[in-house]
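Holo prediction. Input below; ligand is D-glucose.
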Amino acid sequence: MSRFKFSVGPWNVHEGEDAFGPAVRKPISFESKVKKFKEIGMDAIQFHDDDAVPAMNSLTEDQIRKEAAGVKEMLDSEGLSAEFVAPRLWMDPHTADGGFTSNSKEDREFAIWRGLRSVDIAKELGCQKIVLWLAREGTLCQESKDPVTSVKRLVEGINAILAYDPDIKVLIEPKPNEPIDRSICPTIGHVIGLSYLTSAPERVGGLIESAHVILAGLDPASEIGYALASGKLWGVHLNDQNGMKYDQDKSFGVENLRQAFNQVMVLKKHNYGSSGEYIGLDVKAMRTQKQEVCYRHIQNSLEIFKLLEKKVDTFDTAYRDVCIEKRDYEALEFYTINHLLKG
Ligand code: GLO
Ligand code: MG
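Structure of the complex:
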């Protein structure tokens, strides 16, 4: 029995469109996704602001809160919690040049408005976490934005969210590129550094996604360890990625099992989850997957995580220590691979 709690977002069951082709599966209603997530074994749902309150730009602040309260009732009736709300600052025409760091003052104000509405929605849904995946905060053309000004603008945006509610926590989800070319916050080190520039560093932390770390050419378990050592790992998006190419969001562990094993190891060993943090899965079904099996990637990721938990439990730490003592890391490496290969 896993001691972890798991979460997923409605965008993880999508219709299969990509940059070069249209949807290949039928849309599924939010309600039926939520029911299915519960059935699969999820404990919480991750939200974009407009997953909870569609077309929110045309609603008043009261209407937004009311709609969010309705979603909370639905979650309660399914026995699910909300993990976080993330303002979707990459879809709207106002965010073509980024949100908090846009060159347009009006568009920066729009981004902050969406950030504050995300706080309102989070409160209604009973959660304290705002995730900022900074999709377009960076440049496509380096000369278009001064890098110092951009960092200051990002800090201003985060400060506005922190000032709006004293209980809210901001989790930055770093990603080095895609859709932006040069991101302001490419890694968790940048996130942690940035947290100390804000008005409430103790309320600014990170959410690490395995694929984003691999896209930065780094190792997920090491990045997770760095954030844990800093007391700043408040969310994870586990998935997998075949090298440094487009963002793939593959099922957890399907590309690099040893790397996945080491992520589970560090999370378990250092008590991730003991303050209520979730194991979030940010996985996408392959485009080839048919309608009737379009949740398979979530089921697989959960199952692989749990199987790897068992591998962590049965990892012979006494033997590891002997190898360390003798400085025989070839032996340790062989043992690890052999352990993973055994049924
Ligand atoms: C994309 C991100 C995205 C975020 C989600 C929550 O690369 O991983 O899926 O995690 O929008 O903000
Ligand atoms: Mg993610």
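The chain has one domain: 6-341. That is the main takeaway for now.
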